Amino acid sequence: MKKIKLVLTVLIITLLLSGCTVRSEVTVAPNGKTTENVQILTDTSTFESDAYSKEEMIEFSMEQHLAALNYRDYSYETIVGDDLSGAEMNKTYDNICSYFQDTLFNQYVYHHMNCIENDYYYEISNDTEYIPYCSDCSDWPALNDIEFKITLPIKAEEQNADEIDGNTYIWRYDENTRDKSFYLKISKSALEQSEAEYNANVSRKKTINTMLVVVGVVALLAIIGFVGVVLYKKYQRNKLDY
After folding, report:
1. At 233, phi and psi to the nearest 5?
2. Cβ(36)–Cβ(91) under 8 Å?
3. pTM of the model
4. Range with the lowest mean pLDDT among 115-119, 130-134, 168-172?
5. Phi and psi torsions of 209, nearest 5°
6. Are the CB atoms for 58 and 41 separated by under 8 Å?
7. 102 pLDDT exceeds 90?
8. Integer angstrom CA distances of residue 11 from 18, 19, 88, 100, 222
9. DSSP the chain
10. What's the mean pLDDT when you consider all of the chain?
């Protein structure tokens, strides 16, 4: 089964990604849930047609891959831009390791990624050598513009990203990249603390919102009561005048 899954993954990557720009964004929530957003883009002129719109042309190009994408629970939508167009795929995972083990799109530049989970850390690294760009290779996609971005709710314990923006870590690969490795280490205790703080903040906001609703209702009742008293007194005065 694992061998069949690997063959399917390689086939999808080769057919779907060759000659494209890839933008992969992974976000880890405080509770560990991991969301994947992958944009696979190519020159918009590729989808020019006298008979069909660009959206329809993208849909046609995706049809042969839908069974595999649906089987792996991906949702997708088309993207049409001035320069680049293509498709955007999305999926949610239980944790960061389940993402690296189950995604269709983590093998752009490595045949296999390794994610080790113990009581203290998630430790992710490439398990095979870097695959250099090859424009003439038919058994692997020729990708010369790849950006992999992962955003954590905490600071990474260790990493070798090309760029860091707050808690976002970015790796880039192009046709000039050689012998590049991937490494990311995440503290589970820090994630647990982040989740506890997140849940406490959510609970605090709910309490504040509930209090605001109660105060609002009490204030509204007070205004209604005040208006009622004023109108009643006015009514009483008018009644005495008659």
Report:
1. -65, -40
2. yes
3. 0.73
4. 130-134
5. -65, -40
6. no
7. no
8. 11, 15, 18, 18, 69
9. -HHHHHHHHHHHHHHHHTT-EEEEEEEE-TTS-EEEEEEEEEEGGGG--SSS-HHHHHHHHHHTTHHHHHHTT-EEEEEE-SSEEEEEEEEEESSHHHHHHH-SSS-SSBS-EEEEE-SSEEEEEESS-B----TT-SSS---SEEEEEEE-SS--SEE--SEEETTEEEEEEETT--S---EEEEEHHHHHHHHHHHHHHHHHHHHHHHHHHHHHHHHHHHHHHHHHHHHHHHHHHHHHH-
10. 81
* pLDDT tier at 5, thresholds 50, 70, 90: very low
pLDDT tens, residue by residue, 187-229: 998 988 877 777 777 777 877 888 888 888 888 887 887 777 7
